Amino acid sequence: MFPSSKKSIRRTLEVVQAVSHGDFEKRILNITETGDMGELMHAINDMIDRCDAIYVNHKLVPTTLAKTNIFVASSKPVWRDLFYMLQKL
Fold first, then answer.
1. What is the mean predicted confidence (pLDDT) over 2-26?
2. pTM to 2 decimal places
3. SS percent in the chain: helix, strand, coil, step 5
4. CA 85, CA 65: separation in Å to the nearest integer?
5. Gap between the Cα atoms of 69 and 55, Å rounded
6. Which one of 8, 60, 61, 77 is most buried, by most CB atoms within 10 A?
7. Which domain holds residue 10?
8. Residue 30: left (phi > 0), alpha (psi -120 to 50), or beta?
């Protein structure tokens, strides 16, 4: 493995670990890598963006439901149903 590849993997791993601990603000910055490594790094950033958007929407659901007078019968919403409710808002 080349030193630059090891550095790229280390940078990527640090971001992935931070996100796995709930830090959705982390991103792999200044990506100069090309080929598979660059594509992987960009794909990880895209995945973090999507997860962050879902997380933000999830936090907004109780407020939105309260404002629209929609009540959930269970305190443990079913994720599929929650997804469909978000799509309709």
1. 87
2. 0.61
3. 70, 0, 30
4. 9
5. 22
6. 8
7. 3-88
8. left
